[in-house]
Amino acid sequence: MATDENSRELSRLWRIVRTTKQMCADRGYELTDEECNISLADFKSLYADETGAPQRTKMAFTARPSAAMNQRYTPLPRPGQQGDPEPAIGTIHVEFNPNPSVGIKDIKQFAQLLSEKNYYTGVFVTQSAPTASALKIIPSLLPTVMEIFREEDLLVNISRHELVPKHILLSPEEKRGLLERYRLKETQLPRIRVDDPMARYLGLRRGQVVKIIRKSETAGRYASYRWAI
Length: 229
Description:
Blueprint: H1 4-27, H2 33-36, H3 40-47, E1 61-63, H4 67-72, E2 92-96, H5 104-117, E3 121-126, H6 132-137, E4 145-150, E5 166-169, H7 172-182, E6 191-192, H8 197-202, E7 209-216, E8 220-228
Parallel strand pairs: 2-3, 3-4, 6-8
Antiparallel strand pairs: 1-2, 5-7, 7-8
């Protein structure tokens, strides 16, 4: 029989997994509404053992980018380039680390899995922040794209908060059109850091431009743009 502690932990992880799948769907990965808004009862039946304890290793999932997402991540053709450019995106794999602490070994094992399975992006959800030495090795694991989120950062979906405006990633073509329309260089745009909470939520990369739509009492809605640095 499930204990109160197990029930609380399952409820907490249900919120975390739900936010993580909503985050991937908002980026453009192919996930259904049913997957993103799983009920607590269904979550328990899928991810609790016979004692009611959560099993993080079973919560892993993968998702492919949609056609629209592929378009947003397809670079502009270079002069003289043969053939169409390939999208700089691919399958995402998400894991929930069962260990209470995260060290170099955990990071390397996750990176090895991403490489072996040819996943383009990996999201590693951890119970605590990785050690400083573990974080230092991540840049050396390129070309793997690895993102690390703590569970507590995903308890609430920040993009659904009424005070957070809608953020929309521009495609390279849309970015070029914006700069040409206003006769700007990208460096002249206001900036958003890639470690900003919404930038992390969308997986923004340096050099990308995001459109931010805010409510206005006079204009109804207005848009601004930010260049990711």
